[in-house]
Amino acid sequence: xxxxxxxxxxxxxxxxxPAGNTIIHRIIIDRRMxxxxxxxxxxxxxxxxxxxxxxxxxxxxxMAINRGRLVFETIQTVRLWNARHGGxxxxxxxxxxxxxxxxxxxxxxxxxxxxxxxxxNPAYMTRQIGELLKEGKTWIRITSLKPINPINTxxxxxxxxxxxxxxxxxxxxxxYVEDGTETYRYMAPLVTERACLACHYIQGYREGxxxxxxxxxxxxxxxxxxxxxxxxxxxxxxxxxxxVLSGLTLxxxxxxxxxxxxxxxxxxxxxxxVERRTSQLAASNKHLEEFAYITSHDLQEPLRTVSSxxxxxxxxxxxxxxxxxxxxxxxxIDASKHLKLQIRDLLEYSRVAHTKRKxxxxxxxxxxxxxxxxxxxxxxxxxxxxxxxxELPAVLGDRFQLIRLVQNxxxxxxxxxxxxxxxxxxxxxxxxGRFWEVSVADNxxxxxxxxxxxxxxxxxxxxxxxxxxGSGIGLxxxxxxxxxxxxTIRVExxxxxxxxxxxxxxxxxxxxxxxxxxxxxxx
Length: 523
Hints:
Elements: H1 2-8, H2 23-29, H3 35-84, E1 88-91, E2 108-110, E3 116-120, H4 122-133, E4 139-143, H5 156-166, E5 172-178, E6 181-191, H6 197-200, E7 210-219, H7 220-268, H8 274-298, H9 300-317, H10 323-354, E8 359-363, H11 364-374, H12 376-381, E9 385-388, E10 394-398, H13 399-415, E11 424-432, E12 435-442, H14 474-484, E13 489-493, E14 499-506
Parallel strand pairs: 9-11
Antiparallel strand pairs: 1-3, 2-3, 4-7, 5-6, 6-7, 8-10, 11-12, 12-14, 13-14
């Protein structure tokens, strides 16, 4: 282990310092450069914040569409009622004079009681309703490319909207500044119905024609104030995330810097022997492993607290939240569960090297039998067939870690099975010099060549979250177990589909390849 870690710092120069002064090393040593990871997390969190804001903008857009559509449909219903009744009569007042643009013989009448009445057609009624809606900061306007009343002549935006309706558009939403106020503008077409022809037949309209549209305007601030609390909440969550991520990164860098400094001081002593230098490196490596182990271990308690309070909050207040609040709470609970799984697996990853290994003679047959027993339920459930080489050797290793290694590989073969054929797994061995090559082959979905190195890195996933369970650390644990046993692990494509994972483990003295078999490729 000490020798392997020594190579990471390359050769020692004449002045007792590491010759390979990498960028990461310089960033960790020079505190002035610690601003870089802070800026990195600021960029990541900022990008996430920007993406969430774009989603809120889309939500605000749909809210504006729905509000405009509701007002339009209400007015359209009232207009249709008016048209189907041939207009309605109301008393003539200062605010409701006779409509000079309404050409009908019975536009103005007088009741037997002497009350002067004037007919209100749908267009006139729309303008009257619009005057009332102004009090609620909502403006409506009827307009047409062929208006009877000049007041209904469209502006540029309205004209372009009406033209788009002629080509099949159903509605339109835009931004506009009206009387110094930034507003949303919603517009939808007026479709000629049979009842409308009494007034509009003379203009050449036919039933089903687009004869105009109604524009609904309202302040943009009326929508923004509904979205603002969610913006504040998202900003708070992202701010806390940035602080936590930056704090953890700085804490890790501080630990690494202390380790690097200790290592540099050790190398600065020219009179020390190589063995002592190696000892210092081993101590530093152990410190780093313990740092990762302790960090992942100690994070479990506060995470349990967070998960508990989220559960209590959901139990007590979920019924009081609106749909958006419940959705955000659900996201937080899912995130805490995923983080719990990652911390658990990270702790397992750290334990591989942190826990003292009990090396001894281990029968691979016993290892495989125990793994198949542990996975018996899963094997039966997915209808898998597992074939094992008839002659498995005895090897030198840690029994518990080898069980974990083989179980992870078989479990992966079952998890990433092909949907169009039952899973088949083949476990075989081959002697190669002083090492046994143990192979676990499957006929699953396989792994593309460009990802075959990446899959052994910690927290690396090739599939979207939720497609397959797990945190992406299982193969990293496999690699670490193999390296702790002085071996290697690789993956290849199986003929006909699937993958073959092959790891090496040291053979016992005097063992021969007789009676062993390679990993047949399942089809």
